[in-house]
């Protein structure tokens, strides 16, 4: 058990008296009150990555109480994102190495269990979505409408620790690092209060958890970063969850032609559900996919969205856009690889942009996306192909890698 002692404060008390006059003339007494709140370490289950390239193991872990400006959450549901798989199985291969042992997971929804000192925006029982991208609301980036990339606690979160340099999750007194400051593959976790957003109480957590990463990223890439226009033509490269969300964004924006591109034709039917007007498998053509697209569209698409994270595909996406006004947005994630671009492709008027979390300001925009889902303006259920439990987490990774799942939701 951990005892948290909050700052003392003074309370002025008037002594009892038989007459109003004597109450007015009496001296006040000062009573000092010290608040003592008992916080317990919570023991729960978590999927632990002990080293790169090895399957996760389910362990009984300890989750410490929240400290100043921290919130402890009971995770109800978490999506299994390709980024989780990449950091486990491709650490150092296009991904910066993270410290191990590590608790992965960053796309989730849950309920506030307790709050630390100086937390004012959350209370136990609140439904929330933890965020790998913070929004402090005070820094220059948060005050600017040009970006969503707040850097509050950023460096430490990338290293798997909280603001004080330590993690809140441990196994037999050994620190377990928190992935992107979240670690949703644990029944309980602790996050900074600037990396958390409160959502409406009637939202189904096993659905809106997807707004913690993949769906928000792809959807925002189309409607917020690319700013797809009505009656335009679009190509979406990669039809996983991020790509399908980008397709949905293109449709919502009113694009007339939406071409899905993927080497797995099993995803084409699902892409059409989200609004794709046609789909192409690059392996069915002798020419490079960008040449195929330029020919099919009479000069190139207006917008291309890369949702794979491959520099080769990024180049193909850029070159599939029309000269003079084509826009290519990179939403696929890679950290250490480089693109080789012919300068002429940019000089001729194309625009190349990147997006992080779809350009959404996380704390303020995610609840709006939840509202859109609840008002049937945004699809979420259609992304979910499998529902599993925490002890099946490695099965979820296998389904993801084999291309058999779009999103698996893990119930904790």
Automatic annotation (TrEMBL):
SUPFAM superfamilies named in the record: GroES-like, NAD(P)-binding Rossmann-fold domains
A biological process term (GO) from this entry: formaldehyde catabolic process
Metal-binding listed as a keyword: yes
Source domain of life: Eukaryota
Entry's Gene Ontology cellular component terms: cytosol
InterPro entries per record: ADH-like_C, ADH-like_N, ADH_Zn_CS, GroES-like_sf, NAD(P)-bd_dom_sf
Cofactor(s) it depends on: Zn(2+)
Ranges of residues in domain Alcohol dehydrogenase-like N-terminal: 69-199
Domain Alcohol dehydrogenase-like C-terminal, first and last residues per copy: 241-369
GO molecular function annotation: alcohol dehydrogenase (NAD+) activity; S-(hydroxymethyl)glutathione dehydrogenase [NAD(P)+] activity; zinc ion binding
Function per UniProt: Alcohol dehydrogenase. Catalyzes the NAD-dependent oxidation of primary alcohols to the corresponding aldehydes. Oxidizes secondary alcohols to the corresponding ketones.
Similarity section: Belongs to the zinc-containing alcohol dehydrogenase family. Class-V subfamily.
The protein, known as: Alcohol dehydrogenase 6
Native source organism of the sequence: Anabas testudineus
